[in-house]
Write a structure and sequence with these properties.
The protein folds into 2 domains: 100 residues; 237 residues, BirA Bifunctional Protein, domain 2, CATH 3.30.930. It is built from 12 helices and 10 strands. The strands form 2 sheets. Strands 1-5-6-10-9-8-7 form a 7-stranded mixed sheet, with helices on both faces. A 3-stranded antiparallel sheet has the order 2-4-3. The protein is rod-shaped. The protein binds zinc ion (ZN). Zinc ion binds next to loops.
Length: 358
């Protein structure tokens, strides 16, 4: 006969005692962790606990009752101790097997998310690498720039009308009422790199310069206060408009496809003369006109021109000896054309669902 059977026999006909035994064992059975178990131990076996209370009730009882109650108390204490130990072992085993599952080396691994380059970085690298393959060297310049490099040495001295097109963001100005070549600004284009390179080196120069530029533009589907450009220029003793056209035709076809037509449209830039904007035939319609190209059949991709002799004078080159061409490509524009994206803001919203597609 085990302890529980003996207890059942002792408490037969004494329902309050039988209930006490049952409730004590149920309390242990309901424990879910070591903390529960410790609380149960105190409530059942502590100084003010169930078993102690049982012995305290012995005084004033008849000898027969004392004997039954005493035996019940002793047996119950023994049973509670056994059950508490048993439950403790059970809970420890469960915790071990839980930990074992967490370390199960036979489970298949979880694939970590792998990042990749932002679409604008990919396009910048693609543009840059086309020119590197043509022998150009990559040079980068500061984004915080002096007025002198951003405007004046690019043939736009203070109060030149072309400056007003730029909506410049200033970092500091010598005199808020007067434009000065010493003003510090966020470059409005990547062209200052031309001046910096020509100032410090002698031709021949074949340079490509990717980077960010800034303008005080309202942000909408086709404008951003920060945008990316790739500047390129070549300077030598006999560089002609023919070299400019040949180079940019090769570039446009490598970037957009060999089947694309390329055309040059006269334009104006203060630091090139003559100047031309370059278009490629529309990928949507092949040139016949559609919504993408606004019925023109052409898509503008960059601005270019022969470097103005005034720019050579600023950097100390003899305009009689040297000629050169320069161009600037808008990276966002190229990415939008290449990937049929109609809103520039998606590049900067960091929505991983969009970025993961490319
Ligand atoms: Zn079209």
């Amino acid at each position: 006969m085990d302890d529980l059977e003996k207890l059942n026999e002792l408490t037969e006909g004494r329902p309050e005692l039988a209930r006490l035994v049952q409730e004590s064992l149920e309390e242990i059975g309901a424990c879910r962790d070591g903390e529960d178990l410790e609380h149960a131990r105190i409530r059942l076996l502590g100084k003010k606990g169930t078993v102690t209370g049982l012995f305290k009730g012995l005084a004033g009882l008849t000898t027969g009752d004392k004997k039954v109650l005493g035996q019940t108390g002793n047996l119950l204490r023994k049973l509670i101790e056994e059950r508490l130990d048993e439950k403790g072992r059970e809970l420890a085993g469960a915790a071990r097997s839980q930990a074992g599952r967490a370390l199960d080396v036979t489970l298949p691994g979880r694939r970590p998310r792998i990042g990749h380059k932002h679409l604008l970085t990919q396009v910048t690298e693609e543009i840059t690498s086309i020119f590197v393959s043509l022998g150009y060297q990559v040079v980068v310049g500061p984004e915080v720039e002096l007025d002198y490099y951003n405007f004046e040495a690019l043939n736009q001295p203070p109060y030149h009308p072309a400056r007003s097109l730029h909506d410049t963001l200033y970092v500091s100005r010598k005199d808020p009422h007067r434009e000065s070549p010493d003003d510090v600004l966020l470059r409005t284009h990547t062209s200052p790199v031309q001046v910096r390179v020509m100032e410090s080196r002698r031709p021949p120069l074949y340079v490509i310069s990717p980077g960010k530029a800034y303008r005080k533009d309202e942000i909408d589907a086709t404008h951003s206060a920060m945008f990316h450009q790739v500047e390129g220029f070549a300077v030598g003793t006999d560089i002609t408009m023919g070299h400019l056209k040949g180079t940019l035709e090769v570039f446009a076809r490598k970037l957009f496809g060999e089947e694309r037509d390329v055309r040059f449209r006269p334009h104006f830039f203060p630091f090139t003369e003559p100047s031309a904007e370059v278009d490629v035939s529309c990928h949507g319609c092949g040139g016949s006109g559609c919504a993408i190209c606004k019925r023109s059949g052409w898509l503008e991709i960059l601005g270019s021109g022969m470097i103005d002799p005034r720019v050579f004078e600023y950097v100390g080159y003899d305009p009689e000896e040297y000629t050169g061409f320069a161009f600037g490509v808008g990276v966002e524009r190229v990415a939008m054309l290449k990937y049929a994206i109609d809103d520039m803001r998606v590049f900067f919203e960091n929505d991983a669902r969009f970025l993961r597609q490319y």
